[in-house]
From TrEMBL:
Keyword Ion transport in annotation: no
TM segment ranges: 51-73, 85-107, 114-134, 140-162, 183-202, 208-227
The protein, known as: Major facilitator superfamily (MFS) profile domain-containing protein
UniProtKB keywords: Membrane, Transmembrane, Transmembrane helix, Transport
Family classification: Belongs to the major facilitator superfamily. Sugar transporter (TC 2.A.1.1) family.
Listed InterPro entries: MFS_dom, MFS_sugar_transport-like, MFS_trans_sf, Sugar_transporter_CS
Length: 241
């Protein structure tokens, strides 16, 4: 079969023999180190991406854990019984399942950047509405609906972040870049519940959820202004941007 293909090529070129294949120079793979990968994160080419994604992870997780860690307790403070608070929290958390799946589908249709912005803004708006409905406590239907939508958008945010973050870096720094972004996010996740505990006695529950919504809005603004689209781009194309 191969001889037949070669003969067709010779006939099309009108020559008796095919040119000799060109031997490409062998490139030795140089294993990267942690320090070289970390330096690459802060090189001129990747510095803005690093600052952008670290800010997004920090503010997103600050808002997420600041709200979800206190969700049941905040409902109890609004006058709901312990059993009701736990039940509503469990029901509300189910909204995250379709949110995660929907975002995983949308990132391949719309792109990483727009889905990230939409999930963060949607989570912020729903967090604010949830806080207001919990404060006034009269409409349980509104409380559960806004809570379900809040978790829908926030778990969608997770799907986007885990897709978007590694695509910002080359292979040699991808694990380090993703790991540090997640670590910065964990700092936010530790501070979130602490900040909520400090803010709640001063502003009440409405202020807590407004603060969470503000965190998501800041993260969305950072992505919108400084983020880049990675959908459908090769490593070479992303390196040239």
């Amino acid at each position: 079969m191969l001889l037949g293909i070669e003969q067709k090529v010779r006939d099309s070129l009108g020559c008796a023999d095919l040119p000799e294949p060109i031997a490409l120079p062998r490139v030795e793979s140089v294993p990267g180190t942690f320090f070289s990968a970390f330096q690459q994160l802060w090189s001129a080419q990747y510095r803005q991406r690093t600052m952008m994604i670290w800010s997004v992870w920090f503010f997103a997780l600050l808002g997420f854990y600041g709200l979800t860690s206190w969700l049941s307790a905040l409902l109890q403070q609004s006058g709901f019984a312990v059993t009701q608070s736990v039940y509503y929290t469990v029901i509300i958390s189910l909204g995250g399942i379709p949110g995660f799946l929907m975002a995983a589908w949308l990132v391949e249709r719309w792109g990483r950047k727009p889905v990230c912005v939409v999930t963060l803004l949607g989570g912020g708006v729903m967090a604010f509405l949830y806080g207001q409905s919990a404060v006034f406590g009269g409409n349980v239907g509104l409380l559960i609906t806004s809570g379900l939508l809040m978790q829908f958008f926030l778990f969608g945010m997770w799907a986007v972040l885990y897709t978007y973050t590694p695509e910002l870096y080359p292979t040699s720094a991808r694990a380090t870049g993703s790991g540090f972004a997640s670590a910065i996010g964990r700092v936010g996740s530790l501070l979130g519940p602490l900040v909520t505990g400090l803010v709640f006695p001063i502003t009440g529950q409405g202020g807590v959820f407004a603060l969470g919504a503000l965190c998501f809005a800041v993260a969305a603004l950072v992505v919108w202004v400084f983020g880049m689209e990675t959908k459908g781009k090769t490593l070479e194309e992303l390196t040239e941007i």
